[in-house]
Amino acid sequence: MPRLTPLNAAHKKLGGRLVDFAGWELPVQYAGLIPEHEAVRTKAGLFDVSHMGEVEFKGKGALEAANRLITNDLARISDGQAIYSGLLNPNGGFVDDIVAYRFSPEHIFICVNAANREKDFAWMKENAKGVTPVDRSDEFAQIAVQGPKGFGIVQRLCKKPLEGVGTYRFTTGEVAGVECIISRTGYTGEDGFELYCPPNHAEKLWFALLEEGKGDGVVPAGLGCRDSLRTEMKYALYGNDIDEVHTPLEAGLGWIVKLDKAEFIGKDALVKQKAEGIKRKLVGFELLDPGVPRSHYAILKDGEKVGEVTSGTMGPTVKKAIGIGYVPTALAAEGSTFHVDIRGRAAAAKVVKTPFHTRG
Amino acid sequence: MANGEYPKDLKYTKDHEWAKKSGSAIQVGVTFHAQDALGAVVYVELPKVGTAVTAGAQFGVIESTKAVSELYSPLTGKVVKVNDAVVSNPSLVNEAPYAGGWLIEIESSNSAEWDALMDADTYTKTLG
Predict the structure, then answer these.
(1) Whether the predicted interface score ipTM is above 0.85
(2) In this structure, what CATH number is given to the domain that contains residue B70?
(3) Chain A contact present for B58, CB below 8 A
(4) Model pLDDT for residues A295-308, shown as the tens digit of each residue
(5) Domain range spanning residue B21?
């Protein structure tokens, strides 16, 4: 029996095609993946992301306790700022990728992937020093409003001026009369907000956003287009592009690692890996032959398997067959060529600059 | 094509394919239900003319943005024609699944297999 989010009835009312995702019943699409994908890029889309988890560190030493578990540095940002980060195991591989919110040095709020909720919380509880984390996942629903019209839709429903809430900043306030954490973050490459609200008010907020955004062309959007949108941005998907085995340095996520931070779990492994040289890298590529790259297809060089595709799609905005995968560092430079094994046929591909899509 | 059309003069399979007599061959494609469930078709992989196909076995692939789906042959025989237009323009499957979106033509002499295919009423009942 899959778990239901607080918006389950709303999805049914709107004709969402419901599927099981990480044990949760969620819509993969409503009107269709491509129209929803295009709406997010040109107007706005609403996503139910209530299945994500939320863990809180509160009290004296909260920042230090959280900082020891993540790769990025909460001490380097201000109150009201959020950072994308890795939560690593001692080998430098990912337990998860997360977003950490600094309310204050005594209050840190971390959003984790739905599929890793239990794992992450157990990991943090076991390894946190000084402050015990609290799992607050059941206290929050979450709605992502993504697209060029997203800012306006949320602002019109919120008395507090939001211009000062720049990218990866957040505030709290009422949106459509519902108390929210209003975060200028997202997973689509477009502008917008992620709104964390009490579960019993989620439906009210959802329909208020849909109503307010009607004139802008806002649509409900499902997991299908969420995946095609993030792939076009080369945003990592845990379980595909990152996992317990690959490190941030291999995944092109060195920018979320602050090796000059005093300590964090996985630091030693990364320092060692940096000194020894990174052997494989996560790259973005385009197919030069017909076909579509998909996760787990082999990457071949001179007929030999040298890597694997981790994500792939026919990008609805870029209108090309694009993929993400690990290759030996020697093949990671832009312009490098290799083949992708598509069901026994070697399709030529070349490494390209990412993201595949740029906003605007 | 609103609400799903399932022409009465076609035969159907449980894998959501249709079959139609076309001269001495049998033309094959996917139904309205199939293209609706898939969403926009972005890629179709079809066998070469001359390839042997077996009833119930995979003969190709049809892809949407998100997923790869198998195509299963309704009949045993030999591929005698392939729709090159649909390979260059996969959206034909969505726009005209029973016309411009046809996939292959098979030469088959097994009338028992043809007789065993579903008619439109039986197929539409399986859709629930």
Answers:
(1) yes
(2) 2.40.50.100
(3) no
(4) 999 999 999 999 99
(5) 11-108
